[in-house]
Amino acid sequence: MKRSILIHPDPRLKKICPPVEAVTPDIGQLAEDMLATMYDAPGIGLAAPQVGAMHRLLVMDCVKDPEVAPRPMVLINPSVTWASEDLAVYDEGCLSIPDQYAEVTRPAKVRVEWTGLDGKQQEEEFAGLWATCVQHEIDHLNGKLFIDYLGPLKRQMITRKMEKLKREMARNG
Ligand code: NI
User: Fold this and answer.
1) CA pair distance 73, 169, nearest whole angstrom
2) What are the phi and psi torsion angles at 80 (to 5°)?
3) In the structure, how many helices (H) and strands (E) does the chain have?
4) Active-site residue among 123, 137, 163, 168?
5) Cα dihedral across residues 139, 99, 38, 71: positive or negative
6) Which of the two ends of the chain, N or C, has the fewest CB atoms closer than 10 A to its terminal CB?
7) How far does residue 25's CA lie from ligand 1's centre (Å)?
8) Eight-class DSSP state of 15
9) What is the reported pLDDT for 130?
């Protein structure tokens, strides 16, 4: 079932999420709902606080080629265990900050450790768009948005646009 995505500014998007203690059926349902919400948006990544669920859980699928099979991933309690010195710049966006994009510089490759839905520990090295996406989503679990990497003027401009968008959404029900 699709869930609604919180739009910045929202205090829940600024909070540090606590770890998932156990992979319960509720957590499984949350992950399934988040994947449905992400694909529907459409987006390539979504973090639990973006649907108001304050848990360290994210979903992503950065396969963009329609010829390639989708790769839905669920990462519980993810942490970056290594980051490359090489940096990469991507024009990032966010489902909680619709239609706004800005260049963000991050490590080009990262190694990430997490718990899977099966409760097993996993580790993988990500590069390219996957590396950018996983870092962007882990930031969400720490209350950090991509606009926090921008200068204050650019950040304020985007925040004002989002406040206006939220007023319009509230008016239109
Ligand atoms: Ni985001």
Assistant:
1) 31
2) -80, 120
3) 3, 7
4) 137
5) negative
6) C
7) 25
8) S
9) 98
AA letter at 155: R
* Tally of residues, the chain: 173
Please spell the DSSP secondary structure of 65-103, one letter per residue. -TTSPP--EEEEEEEEEEE-S-EEEEEEEETTEEEEEEE
Banded pLDDT at 64 (limits 50, 70, 90): confident
- 137 Cα: distance to centroid of ligand 1 (angstroms): 6
Catalytic residue at 137? yes
- Give 21's contacts (C-beta < 8 A, 6+ positions apart): none
Give the residue extent of every domain in the chain: 11-172
Centroid of ligand 1 to alpha carbon of 26 (angstroms): 23
Q: 59 has which bridge partners?
A: 46, 74
Mean pLDDT of the chain: 97
CA 19–ligand 1 middle distance (angstroms): 19
CB within 8 Å of 68: residues ≥ 6 apart: none
Fold observed for domain 11-172: Peptide Deformylase (3.90.45)
Among 117, 112, 146, smallest CA distance to 131 is for 112
- Output the six-digit token pair for 101: 């994009």
Instruction: Look up the pTM and report it.
Output: 0.97
Q: How far is CA 50 from the centre of its chain?
A: 8
Hey, what are 158's tokens? 């985007």
